[in-house]
Description:
The protein is an alpha+beta fold and 146 residues long. The protein is built from five helices and eight strands, in the order ββααβαβαββββα. Strands 3-4-7-6 form a four-stranded mixed β-sheet. Strands 1-2 form a two-stranded antiparallel sheet. It has a two-stranded antiparallel ribbon with strand order 5-8. The chain is globular, with a radius of gyration of 15 Å. The N and C termini lie far apart (39 Å).
Amino acid sequence: MSKIIGFTAGEIMLSRKKLIQLALSELPSETEYLDYKQQIDLASDKGRAKLIKLIAAMSNSNPQGMSFIIVGVTDQKNVIGASFIDDAKLQNAIRGYLESSPKVRYENVTHDQLPQDKFIGLITIYPENSVCRESKKIWKLCQGST
Length: 146
């Protein structure tokens, strides 16, 4: 199995909390395989477009390894929490907007510093040997926005 950040893919599935703890304590702020977001907005076109572009960029910059977007954490690695997001909602938001789409999974992870209704969201982007591209539809979402 391929390794990333010292974990095999199987270990990452079993130890999401350890991965988040490692990302918050020992890893640099952001890398080609790790990004922090205070929140993601799946309800708006602009929010979905930003997430889709980020997923494509991360997939392409680390095609042999897994990449992670940690939601509910600031760029300074302060835990602020995020609302619960169902993985199916994420899948529906990105479906059809990526060509050669990598497998993407969203998980809600509890954290000791957060109330019961807040989570750290973990978006895992699995390796994809093909170049991931935004489909033409995505540009319609972003016209006139920055």
